[in-house]
Amino acid sequence: MTTKKYAALLRGINVGGAKKVPMAELREVLAGLGHTDVQTYLQSGNAVFASTQKDTAALARELEQAVEARFGFTVACLVVDGARLRAVAEACPFPSAELEGRQLHATFLSEQPADERFASIDGPSYLPEEYRIGDRVVYLYTPDGLGRSKLAEALFKPAVFKGIDATTRNWNTVARLVELTED
Prior knowledge:
By secondary structure, the protein is an alpha+beta fold. It has helices at about 25-30, 55-70, 80-90, 150-155, 160, 170-180; strands spanning about 5-10, 35-40, 45-50, 75-80, 105-110, 130-135, 135-140, 165-170.
């Protein structure tokens, strides 16, 4: 069987002292699930691995269960393959090469949200901040960074992504994960 490279994106770990997941232990969890070529990137819940499994939703559920068993708390996880990461990077509607990594973000989604979910967000009132909806991703341009973004605050209200797992990565991380998942 052939293997394929994936990135696991864990949501909300190692932020502000909550939901601590040491990266060495995350690598052990992934290896324990039978995955190979396991690496982590930064401390914010990014892991890359190879697997013969092709179902990304099943891989995510398996990892969520293993993390809960190992660490005692639930963490939403999205698993995306290298081709999807490349497609997200290539489809970016903003000039990613001209921006600082902290200014551009991709929010990966477990499913495509209906356009109506964004109806209450008056995009022009947040300028120069902007967002664009892609294929199971929301691109977000925040010139002053995500932490100061009023648009991000509006986008991440529970009603917008209710029932959808979502996790955000800055553009530097997206670019690095594309590199790490190249076959």
